[in-house]
Each structure stands twice: as structure tokens, then as C-alpha cells.
Amino acid sequence: MKKIEIKNNLAKLIKENRMFHSIILSGKNYAEVITVSNDLARMFFCEKTNIDNDKCNACKRFLSNNIIDYLKIGDGNLPITKVQVQEIISRFSLTSVEKFNKKVYVIDCAENLKNDAANSLLKFLEEPPINTFSILLTKNKTDILPTIRSRCNLINVENEKIIDCKNNILVDMLYKNKEDILLSNIDIKKIEKSELIKLSEDAYEIIKEKFPLNTNLFEVWLEFILDLKFSISKNISIDNWLINVTEVI
Ligand SMILES: [Zn+2]
Fold first, then answer.
1. Could you tell me the distance, in angstroms and rounded to a whole number, from the CA of residue 141 to the centre of ligand 1?
2. Rounded CA gap, 91 and 167, in Å?
3. 62 alpha carbon – ligand 1 mean position (Å)
4. Residue from 103, 105, 106, 84 nearest 33 by CA
5. Alpha carbon of 63 to ligand 1 centroid (Å)
6. Over pLDDT 70: what percentage of the chain?
7. What is the residue range of the signal peptide feature (predicted)?
8. Using an 8 Å Cβ cutoff, are 189 and 234 in contact?
9. Strands 132-138 and 22-26
10. Is the pLDDT of residue 23 over 70?
11. For 138-158, what is the mean pLDDT?
12. Under 8 Å CB-to-CB from 208, ≥6 apart: which residues?
């Protein structure tokens, strides 16, 4: 899901008191995962559950890391220890001292939760104290222990950096008729080689999303990228590639 969709959906659930107790945010672009997590955690406390920082008192406090009922553990490298998990459990089992009546903890790189630390967390994930929410973050959901994974709602954060490249002329070209695809060669040949390699690599990621069943197109595309990198004549590579594209599109 796109960031904006995730934020809107979860804001709705928070407002309606239907929010999942435990979620895993997973995405290859980990910076995006962190952004969603920060926004989501802030939304729990925001006076209006605003998907963006509206500078309310709670948002300000959250951004200055000044909310006792919010805790983040995990440094991305070291294994997360049982002691760290127990700290969450004891801290979050106490009655809230804040007026928010919500407690949120985040586990960064949750794949670093191994055996005994994970085991200590299981019961807490399954039967959390009232209004306690956990957000587990990872690049790859399959790296998280299945026992943890099965107790959480999984949300995939789309890699928008790639998918939002809407102005990729190589992708736009695919929506033209065959004759016009072949005529695109004039414009494409004007693009400098290194730029064209970058564009075609970006386009490949978009194509996988937009034409997921056209494996012939993937092959043609990969061949073109290789050809561009290693052949002497960029223009011949382009001509051959466009002919191949018209045969598979
Ligand atoms: Zn706010």
C-alpha cells in the first residue's frame, strides 16, 4: 500500500477505536517504513488523529520525543535482548500517567528479535494491556519469526520512489501503438547513455508492477539494459530493442 493510503486507513481505525493491536510494517525501502511508523505513532497521540503533523500540543511533544507512553527499541544492528523486551512489558503494564490513554511501542528491525526475546514478547502481543499498540518494522517480513508474524497484522509499505516515476518516457511509450513505439527512437536516441541506462532500470521496476504477466517484456527489457551497458552503438541497441518491444507488447 502507498504511504498515504496506509496513513488514512490507520487514522480511520484509530478514530473508530478499531485499530489493530499489533502490526508489522514491512518494505524494501526502509526509510519509507520508518517515515510511516513515525507518522503512525504520532497519529495515536495527536489530538485530532491527523495524518500530518498539525502542530497540536501532542504532535509537538511527540516530535520532541517527550511522550512517556511511547517507546522505541532496536538499533538496527544488535540483536534485541530479552531485557529490552521485558522493559517494554513492565513499562507498558503500568497504568498510564499520561492523559492520552494510549501506549505505543515500536520495534525497529524486528527481525533482530531472536528466540528468548521473541518468546517473552509473544504473550504480550497476544494479550496486550488495554490501549497498548505495537508497531514492528522490517525490510523483509519473512525475516521475522513466524510465531511473531502470525500474531500481527501485516502492512506492506510500497516503494513509491520507484513506482512514482510516472514521467518515465520509456514506460509511457508502452501505451502507444506499435508504429509510434518505433518512432520513439528519435527522442530516445537523444538521451545520454548513462541517463538512458538509469531510465531503463527505473522503467524495469515499473514494468514489473504494471505488466506483471508479460515475462517476454521483462526479458526484452533486461536484454536492452545489458546491451546498452556493453554494446558500442547505443543507437543500434535502441533500434533492436524497440523492434523487440513491439513484438511482445
Ligand atoms: Zn496533532
1. 30
2. 49
3. 9
4. 106
5. 10
6. 98
7. none
8. yes
9. parallel
10. yes
11. 94
12. 218
Q: What is the whole-number distance in angstroms between the Cα of residue 72 and the centre of ligand 1?
A: 19
Q: Is the pLDDT of residue 228 over 80?
A: yes
pLDDT at position 34: 94
User: What length does the chain have?
Assistant: 249
Tell me how far the alpha carbon of residue 28 lies from the centroid of ligand 1, in angstroms.
28
pLDDT score, position 161: 58
pLDDT of 32 above 80: yes
pLDDT digits (tens, 9 = 90+) for 58-79: 999 999 999 999 999 998 889 9
**Distance of alpha carbon 168 from alpha carbon 145, whole angstroms:** 38
Long-range Cβ contact pairs of 95-101 (< 8 A, separation 24 or more): 96/69, 96/131, 97/68, 97/69, 98/67, 98/68, 98/69, 100/44, 100/45, 100/58, 100/67, 100/69, 101/131
Cell of 64: 520532541
CA-to-CA distance for 176 and 198, rounded, in angstroms? Answer: 22
Q: What is the DSSP letter of 80?
A: B
Cell of residue 186, nine digits: 528519435
CA of 152 to the centre of ligand 1 (A): 26
